Write the C-alpha cells for this entry.
Amino acid sequence: MFNNVIFLSIARRFYSGHVGKTEARKYVLTKHFQGEPKKSDFEIVQEELPELKDGEILTEAEYLSVDPYMRAYMIGYKLPTVMIGGQVAKIIASRNDKYPVGGYVSGYFGWRTHTIYNPNIIPAKADLLPTYLLPDMSPYPVSLALGVLGMPGNTAYFGLQEICKPKAGETIAITGAAGAVGSHVGQIGKILGCRVIGFAGSDEKCEYLEKELGFDRAFNYKTVNIQKALREGAPDRVDCYFDNVGGEISSAIMNYMNKYGRVAVCGSVSSYNDPALPKVTIVQPAIVFKELKVEGFIVNRWTDRWNEGVNANLSWLREGKLKYEEKVYHGFDNMVDALVGMLRGENLGKAIVKVK
C-alpha cells in the first residue's frame, strides 16, 4: 500500500501538474515593419488554451530571444501572425512521460507566454529551430539555451567550421563581432589556433573583445578607416570572413582577402531597417580573381547535428575556453523595446528578455 502511494505521488508530480485551462498572452504582428519595429506594429492578444490531450505538454516561457533575423524574416509572413522567435520554457503540465513537469524545453514557440506542444507530432513544415528537452547545463543558467548553448552558439560552431573551414595560423575577420554570434565565432577561432580580428560599434565593445575574449585586434567601425584597420589588424590579409552585417565594410574585407579565401554569410544587419537596399562597392571582381568561396547559410541546415554543437560548446564553456555575456531586458511587455535595442547594437553578447 505504501509503495502504491509513492508511485501515485511520483506519477502525479511528473505526469500532471495542471488541471483546467490557461490564459496565454501573445504578440501578433499586424503591420509589416517600416524602418525600426514599433509597438504599434503589434497587438498583444489574450488567448485561452484548451486542456491537454495525451502526448502534449504545457509550457510557460521564462526567457524569450530577440535576434537580428526576426527583423528580416517577417516580411515573408502573411499578416496577422504571431511574432516568431525562440524561448526557454518550463514545463508546468504534462501528459507526456518523456517530458516531466519541472523540466525545461527550448522551442521555437514565438512571442507568447504559454504554449501547448506535442513532441510526438512532426510538423508538416519544419520550424526554423528544433524543440528539445534541455540537458543538464549546471552550473549555468537555462537562458544559455538561447545563446552560447543554443541557436547563436550553433550558428557560430557550424557556420565557421563547416563553411569557412579555418586552419591554424590563418586570419579570421568578423563583423558584428560583439554580438551573440560574432563574439562566439571569434572565440572558436582562437581555440582553433587562428588570428582573429573583429569589427564592432563602440570602443567599449572592442575593449571587451580584446581584453576579455582574446581577439587579436578589434576596431570600432564607426571611427576607424577600414582599409587602415585591415592592414594593421591583418598584415597577412584575411583567409576567412564571417559576415554578420553586409554593406560597404563587407566589400572592403572581401577585397582584402587572400586567394582561395572563404566567406560565411550569416546576415546583413546593417541594412535590416533600411527602406531601400544600400549601394556598395562591387565584390564580383574580388570573388573571381581571388577565387573566393562565398556561401550563405541558415543554421537549421544542421538540425540533425544540433546536439553535437550544443555539447561541444558546453564542453568548451566548462573548460574555460568560452566566455559569454547576456543583455537581459525585463518583462513581456518590453519585447519590442528589446528587439529595437538589439538592432541598434545596445547588447554585448546575447539579448534576451526575462518574462517575469
User: Anything to note?
Assistant: The radius of gyration is 22 Å.
